[in-house]
Amino acid sequence: MESKPRMLAILDIVTILLFITAVAMVFLYAPLEAVMGQVQRVFYFHVANAWVGMLGFLVAAIAGVAFLRKGDRKWDVVGMAAVEISFVFFFIAIVSGSIWARGSWGTWWTWDPRLTTAAIVELVYAAYLMLRQGIEDPDRRARFGAVYAILSFISVPLTFISIRIFRTIHPVIIGSGAAGAEGSFDMTPKMLQTFMFSLFTFSFIFADLLWHRIRLGQLADKTENLRLKVLQ
Amino acid sequence: MQPIPQTENQVRLKEPSLGVAQFIRSLSAIIWKDLAAELRSRELLSAMLVFALLVILIFNFSLELDAQARSTVTAGVLWVTFAFAGTLGLNRSMAMEKDRGCLDGLLLAPVDRSAIYFGKAIGNLIFMLIVEVIVLPVYSVLYSVNLFKPGLLLVILLGSIGYVAVGTLLSSMAVQTRTRDVLLPILLFPLVIPVLIAAVKGSTGFLQGAQAVDIRPWINLLIVYDVIFVAVAFMVFDYIVEE
Q: Where are the domains of chain B?
């Protein structure tokens, strides 16, 4: 049993400190938004969660391509880890967005492109996990997982485009917003700093959890091999 | 970490493809095999058809399809029917290959793997189109809606191609898992949502006589989806049937 790498321990501590700072910034440093009030504070972690959710999607697709090309089990563990983490973070993003929408749009849910695409991404993650659960042979599980990650990575942007052809009401804070967006606002410098810091922090959380999960996957592989060896 | 022994090198085809003529020959052989099996048993088409008609029947009661509702929901009803019946057919066509050991036989045959994929996909497409060709007039008669517009037929063809391209790939994946039939819709529906949205919108456009400018984006989207997914399926099919 190898012990926890030193770098990982350092990363753990840095991540925890960053997260505490980010929470403090959201509640103490960022100013109160004039129109929406307190509920606007959801925004900082909502976008950061969604960012981590999408990041995992990208990582899983890249790991899928790498696995199919190289056939190295390492990449399968990475893809699985990314999907598992992003599944949770994206769920948090959807729930926190819902809370914000209740305060700002007056409804928990609307069939807007981003919301719909988010729901579909979450379902794709669930399908990915169910697919893997149904396969016993580790090599086949890795191949199918990789293929499904790649397929969904191509399909989801098309889903987004296809719903985007309708009008959207989701505010676009970064970049140019649609004319019909409701609940949009301009960020003050302090808000922008808090926002950027949240994104930065959540990227660290993602990296930290990913590392832990990859280690867990490798250890699981190892125990599986040992078990097979004992059985023989 | 010990590398896990890979099984993929046990069966390797020596020289799978010998040019285009060979490819087309093996492709048509696979399609013909599916059609001949279906002609004799008729179990797949009859199941899909009866199922499709039942879905339309259920929609009739659940949606109160009166004259006013019909103009807006016809496309939706049709595409839900096609999607559900399509899943049934895809599952069955792959399960048959797997249960009777045909898939192993196909994989051992000295043909290009992509010929197997395209053969199965075209076979599935033919079945789906047959079901649609029967469902459309039935629906027209039952609800006195004229569905025979060239634009609508084009949308249905493009939508079916996209659906079958992804569906064939995923059904050959689902059939190799423990949960099998249950898994296919769960894997397939999130990925074909662009097809379903574009197909429903395009069909509604043609049924309501919308401007060509409004329908064009949906047709383009369908074509883009078809091209991308046929190409990707062609690239990754090898990894799915590899043993």
A: 23-34+42-241
Secondary structure element (H or E) that encloses residue A169, with its range: none
**Of A135, A139, A218, which has the smallest distance from its Cβ to B177's Cβ?**
A135
Each domain of chain A, given as residue ranges in start order, spans: 40-171+206-217
A73 touches chain B (CB under 8 A): yes
Q: What is the pLDDT at residue A108?
A: 84
Tell whether A152 lies on the interface with B, counting CB pairs under 8 A: yes
B173 and A131: CB-CB below 8 Å? yes
Nearest Cα to B202, choosing from B242, B164, B159, B234?
B159
For the stretch A180-183, contacts whose Cβ atoms lie closer than 8 Å and that sit 24 or more positions apart, written own/partner, are A182/A104, A182/A105, A183/A36, A183/A100, A183/A101, A183/A104, A183/A105
**A contacts of B236 (beta carbons < 8 Å):** 68, 147, 150-151
**Residue A162 touches partner B, C-beta closer than 8 Å:** yes
ipTM score: 0.83
Count Cβ–Cβ pairs < 8 Å, chain A vs chain B. Answer: 102
Question: Cα separation of A93 and A75, whole Å?
Answer: 26
Q: What does the block give as tokens for A213? A: 């999960």
Give the separation between CA A147 and CA A143, rounded to whole angstroms. 6
CA A102 to chain B, closest CA, distance in angstroms equals: 26
Min distance A150 CA to chain B CA atoms (Å):
9
| Residue B13 contacts residue B47 (beta carbons within 8 Å) | no
Residue ranges for chain A with pLDDT beneath 70: 1-2, 34-35, 166-186
Q: What's the pLDDT tens digit per position in B104-154?
A: 888 888 888 888 899 999 999 999 999 999 999 998 888 888 888 888 999
